[in-house]
C-alpha cells in the first residue's frame, strides 16, 4: 500500500472514530490490524502526521492527536497570531542553525540514517505536497536528534504554523525544490561528519534561501 493511501486510511479512521485533539490513538499493533496495514506502513503515516504537528508521540505514553502538551505550549500557540510567512522565515533563521549544531553532536547513528533517508525522499518528491511533507519531517527529525523535549516542542510548533493555509508558502518551482533538497543533503553531510559549525552554516545558507523566496527575490 502506498504511503499516501495509508495516510488517507489513517485520517479516515480518525474522522470515523470522531477523535479530537488530546485523544489517544490505539496501540500500533491494534491500529495496524484495524487498518489492515503493516506496522511499518503505519509508522510512516504517523511520522508524516507528527512532522506536520497533527500528532505527538511519547515514549511509553502512546500517540495523541494535537501538539505535545508542555507547560509553554499555550504560549507557542501565539506563534500564529499576527504572524506572516516572513516572520516565520526570520524566526527559523534565528533558531535552526543553532539547533542543528547541537543535533550534529547528539544525533545517534539511527537518527542520521533516518535523516539521510528523509533527504532522499525529499529530493525525489514529485509535487509540492509531497515535498512539503518530507521537508517538515526533515526539520523535525533534526530537532528530535537533540534529545531535548523543549526544542522538539518548539519545532513541532513551528511546523504547525508553517502548514496553516494563511502561512503555507508553496514551493511550486521544481528547480527550487531541487535546490532546497540539495541543501538538505549538504546539512546531512555535515552532520554525518559531526561538524557542528559546518552544519550550522549549511542550515543558515538554506534558510537564507528560504527567506529570499518568501520575499519574492
List keywords for this structure.
single chain, 217 residues, mainly alpha, two-stranded antiparallel ribbon, 10 helices, globular
Total strand count, please? 2
The percentage of residues in β strands lies in under 5%
Largest sheet: 2 strands, antiparallel
Number of helices: 10
Would you mind describing this structure in some detail?
With 217 residues, the chain is mainly α. 67% of the residues lie in helices and 4% in strands. It contains ten helices and two strands, in the order H-H-H-E-E-H-H-H-H-H-H-H. The chain has helices spanning 3-16, 28-35, 39-51, 73-76, 85-106, 109-123, 128-144, 149-162, 174-192, 196-214, and strands at residues 55-58, 62-65. A two-stranded antiparallel ribbon has the order 1-2. A hairpin with a 3-residue loop joins strand 1 and strand 2 (62-65). The termini are far apart. The model has no long low-confidence stretch (mean pLDDT 84).
Short overview:
By secondary structure, the protein is mainly alpha-helical. The protein is 67% helix and 4% strand.
Amino acid at each position: 500500500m502506498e504511503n499516501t493511501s495509508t495516510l488517507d486510511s489513517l485520517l479516515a479512521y480518525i474522522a470515523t472514530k470522531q477523535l479530537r485533539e488530546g485523544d489517544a490513538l490505539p496501540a500500533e499493533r491494534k491500529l495496524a490490524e484495524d487498518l489492515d496495514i503493516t506496522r511499518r506502513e503505519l509508522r510512516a503515516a504517523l511520522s508524516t502526521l507528527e512532522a506536520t504537528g497533527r500528532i505527538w508521540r511519547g515514549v511509553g505514553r502512546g500517540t495523541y492527536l494535537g501538539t505535545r502538551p508542555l507547560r509553554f505550549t499555550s504560549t507557542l500557540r501565539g506563534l500564529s497570531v499576527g504572524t506572516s510567512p516572513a516572520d516565520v522565515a526570520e524566526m527559523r533563521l534565528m533558531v535552526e542553525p543553532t539547533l542543528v549544531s547541537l543535533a550534529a553532536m547528539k544525533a545517534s547513528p539511527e537518527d542520521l540514517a533516518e535523516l539521510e533517508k528523509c533527504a532522499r525522499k525529499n529530493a525525489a518528491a514529485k509535487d509540492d505536497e509531497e515535498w512539503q511533507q518530507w521537508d517538515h519531517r526533515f526539520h523535525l527529525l533534526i530537532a528530535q536528534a537533540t534529545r531535548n523535549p523543549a526544542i522538539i516542542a518548539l519545532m513541532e510548533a513551528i511546523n504547525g504554523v508553517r502548514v496553516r493555509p494563511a502561512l503555507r508558502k508553496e514551493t511550486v518551482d521544481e528547480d527550487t525544490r531541487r535546490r532546497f533538497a540539495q541543501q538538505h543533503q549538504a546539512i546531512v553531510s555535515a552532520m554525518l561528519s559531526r561538524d557542528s559549525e559546518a552544519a550550522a552554516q549549511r542550515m543558515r545558507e538554506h534558510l537564507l534561501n528560504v527567506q529570499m523566496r518568501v520575499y519574492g527575490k
